[in-house]
Write a structure and sequence with these properties.
Number of strands of chain A: 21
CATH class of the largest domain in chain A: Alpha Beta
Shape of chain B: globular
Order of helices and strands of chain B: HHHHHHHHHHH
CATH architecture of the largest domain in chain A: 3-Layer(aba) Sandwich
CATH superfamily of the largest domain in chain A: P-loop containing nucleotide triphosphate hydrolases
CATH superfamily of chain B: MetI-like
Number of domains of chain B: 1
Strand content of chain B: under 5%
Radius of gyration of chain A: 22 Å
Largest interface: A-B, 19 and 18 residues
Helix content of chain A: 25-40%
CATH topology of the largest domain in chain A: Rossmann fold
Structural class of chain A: alpha+beta
Largest sheet of chain A: 6 strands, mixed
Oligomer: heterodimer
Number of strands of chain B: 0
Number of helices of chain B: 11
Structural class of chain B: mainly alpha
Distance between the termini of chain B: 44 Å
Largest sheet of chain B: none
Chain lengths: 329, 230
């Protein structure tokens, strides 16, 4: 698959404070990529780099196989649509807000009108075209910002926490819209979220950001501890890791690498922990199973698998995984 | 009380009959203040934006100075400029004293700190997301500037209107630098002072009412722009 972005040795700092330190990052073209992490992990900073708003302090960056440099930054920026977490709408009507994206690109007036009309229809905004943007609700504003970001046909759509504070109906609408523009228009979509399960179920690629460092998997199962021999010890659990790993204070396991069973499995997997199911949640036709087994594990399974297991909240269950499926950093 | 009511009704008759003398004075006041506010805005708004966006040594001191100058007494401005414009003063040769130009310069000096300071406030009141939004949309630096001005336009207009309100209502500068010359530098405020001292209370009251009306309209615009800016 072609790469939309390739970052190598990318560093960024606010003053003397380093906030981003990425050795390698490849984001696939025409796919959905989620960046997951807690507040202050560097998600928005990384988005600003990917939207060509801030240049990195060090490292190289390629966009659709073209080298990005200080001289062509502005040109690359125009190939991206960016929707902020709380989008800012200008003191103008909804249609003027959307049209401004075309005005900036010096699109002729006659073309602008046509495109704005089409975009308003596409996003179901026709009825509020003349409304003053400052009076819109959060969801409506998000819609307008999305329409404004997409009207010029960007190759990449970047969204910062787009699903925050959205009601269920609009959340689903937005998900459908994202899938639609990826499939039909071959747009690369990158979004940040706190919600690991949501990221995992919606995105093709999930990266987690922890303290400015990127790990190429979701951090649904992230533990802090120390290494002793071939074991990673947290305060509550001791997990077997591949031999040879000597440094690292964090261990992550992808949610789909966890195997759930009612009895202890006899297999090549070296980690087996009994626990109790504390939560079951559904997201995008997948089930998130939360198991308290000393540490809290999150596994993602299909509804059919859950039915086959025949378990419910409070039941005892075994969590197993291979030592090679862990990522220590 | 009868005296006041009689004077008030005479004043209203003068206004209703479009007394040429009265309206000529009103017009002099308005055009002088308009020119002053235009010049002060052309200087004050860019200066305000520059100070808002740039950090430099002495910025805090400048802001404190501008705040102080917002309450600048008009007679002090009149007095200082009189010293410059009088025949023996450094600019005496220019023959500005007792001309509308002298009043315009004086009013400019008076309202420049107001417009400058309120422009800084206007620029600082812009939403912090505005700049990032403009950049993310791919706007050039020039386009970003235009969009920024457009976004804070009501707050800037409020600054300009506040300056106009101060200029049209001041009396010290118009009296000391304009000389209250009939048909030339006589403004509403100087005429009110003169006519009252002459015992022409109805005439002064008519001008007072019109000045009040102008102030009311200006204040209406100010509140309108401030409301829109929010």
């Amino acid at each position: 698959m072609n790469c939309a972005y390739e970052l190598s040795g990318t560093r960024f700092a606010y003053g003397a404070e380093p906030v981003l330190d990425i050795d390698k990052l490849k984001i696939n073209h025409s796919g959905i990529t989620a960046l997951v992490g807690p507040n202050g992990a560097g998600k928005s900073t990384l988005l600003n780099l990917l939207a060509f708003i801030n240049p990195p302090a060090a490292g190289t960056m390629r966009f659709h196989e073209q080298e990005v440099s200080a001289t062509n930054y502005q040109l690359f920026r125009r190939r991206v649509g960016y929707v902020q977490q709380k989008p800012y709408l200008f003191h103008a009507s909804v249609s003027d807000n959307i049209e401004l994206a075309l005005k900036i690109r010096r699109v002729p007036k006659s073309e602008r009108r046509e495109q704005v009309r089409n975009t308003l229809c596409k996003f179901g905004l026709e009825k509020m075209a003349g409304r003053y943007a400052q009076g819109l609700s959060g969801g409506e504003a998000q819609k307008v910002a999305l329409a404004r970001a997409l009207i010029h046909g960007p190759e990449v759509l970047i969204m910062d926490e787009p699903f925050n504070h959205l009601d269920r109906a609009f959340r689903e609408l937005l998900q459908d819209l994202i899938r639609d523009i990826v499939e039909r228009d071959k747009v690369t979509v990158i979004f940040t979220t706190h919600d690991q399960l949501h990221a995992r179920t919606l995105a093709d690629q999930v990266f987690s950001l922890i303290d400015g460092h990127l790990i190429p998997l979701s951090a649904m199962n992230l533990f802090t501890g120390t290494i002793t021999g071939d074991r990673f010890n947290t305060d509550k659990l001791s997990m077997i890791i591949p031999p040879g790993i000597q440094t690292g204070t964090r261990l992550a396991i992808e949610a789909n690498q966890l195997v759930l069973s009612r009895q202890e499995l006899e297999s090549s997997m070296r980690n087996h922990f009994p626990g109790r199911i504390s939560k079951l949640a559904t997201e995008n036709l997948q089930i998130l199973v939360t198991v308290e087994a000393g540490e809290v594990f999150h596994a993602v399974i299909t509804p059919a698998a859950l039915q086959e297991l025949g378990v419910s909240i409070g039941d005892t269950i075994w969590v197993s995984f291979k030592s090679t499926s862990v990522h220590v950093f | 009380m009868d005296y006041f009511i009689q004077a008030l009704s005479s004043a209203l008759v003068l206004i209703a009959n479009f007394d040429k003398e009265i309206y000529s004075i009103v017009w002099t006041s308005i055009w002088i203040s308009l020119v002053a506010v235009t010049v002060a805005s052309l200087l004050g708004v860019p200066l305000g934006l520059a100070v808002a966006f740039k950090d430099f040594f002495g910025k805090k001191f400048l802001l404190q100075g501008l705040n102080t100058l917002m309450a600048l007494p008009t007679v002090v401005v009149g007095l200082l400029l009189y010293g410059f414009f009088t025949r023996h003063g450094p600019l005496g040769e220019w023959g500005l004293l007792y001309t509308p130009m002298a009043i315009i310069i004086g009013e400019c000096v008076l309202i420049l700190p107001i417009i400058w300071n309120l422009s800084i406030t206007a620029a600082n009141s812009a939403d912090p997301r505005l700049s990032l939004t403009c950049q993310a949309m791919g706007a050039t630096a020039w386009q970003q500037g235009i969009i920024f001005l457009s976004e804070v336009r009501y707050a800037l207009l409020a600054a300009v209107v506040a300056g106009f309100g101060r200029a049209i209502g001041e009396v010290g500068i118009a009296m000391m630098l304009g000389g209250n010359i009939h048909g030339f530098t006589r403004t509403m405020t100087t005429a009110i002072a003169l006519e009252t001292s002459k015992g022409e209370f109805e005439f002064a009251l008519a001008l007072g009412l019109l000045l009040l009306l102008v102030a009311f309209i200006v204040n209406g615009f100010l509140q309108y722009f401030q409301r829109l800016a929010r």
